Model the fold of this input.
Amino acid sequence: MSDTVLLHYEEQGTGQPVVLLHGYPLDHTIWRAQMAALSDSFRVIAPDLRGHGQSPAPAGEYPMETLAADVSALLDRLGIAQAVWVGHSMGGYVALAALRTMPERVAGLVLCASHPFADPPDKAQARRDNARRALAEGTAAVVSGMLASLFKPGTNLESIPAHRVRTIMLSTPVQGVAGVLSGMAARPDSVDLLRAPVPPKALIAGRDDQIIRLTELQALTAQIPHLSLRVIDDAGHLPMIEQPDATTAALRDVLSYWKR
Ligand code: MLT
Done:
């Protein structure tokens, strides 16, 4: 595809390909613990999405489908036809966009601290306003205030993990921040995509997530019986960093379906 960008990525292990996608405004290093652990059984690929980490950050809006097309182009480069797409938060929106636009590339889908709902109009408008603000005032102006909400309530924001996350957030190029804020605002509702039992799909959530409420995910799994939900205790929106071992165990449990 001509408008895709060459993503920076890390790869480890052999076996069923598993793509780990980070959320906004983060990078692939949030998955460091899971990548090291799961590479004993899987070929784990963790890219920096367009506009994040060390990947290119062109100007303009980044629809979730475009981010998915970049990942698909990476899979082409690696000779991979189909992968399990594991998406954290915005990475989950990207995985859903892949399922919508290129289902043949999706062996399975795991949403981690993510959900399939579109933004309500006020949230979409706030994102578009923040995209403009980022371009005018810089990354820090829109991301600095997010740190506390990413962790479970009461987290020491001077701790090493919080410091690490703050550094990643503040390093996100402003074009990336603006691009994905506009792209997330435009994404459609994807609940219907979760209703089909194939390919297999699962949810993993932090019990104390302040951004994506557990009760909404519980209501969803009550409606869609084949959609499993694994809850990570003592974790907020970043279970892979707040509770790395429990998150790895939950992923290993879900991914055992594809283990050869
Ligand atoms: C993320 O962590 O990717 C974002 O919080 C997702 C969102 O803002 O909807």
User: Anything to note?
Assistant: The beta strands are 9-12, 17-21, 43-47, 83-88, 106-112, 201-206, 228-232. The CA atoms of residues 16 and 259 lie 7 Å apart. The mean pLDDT is 97.
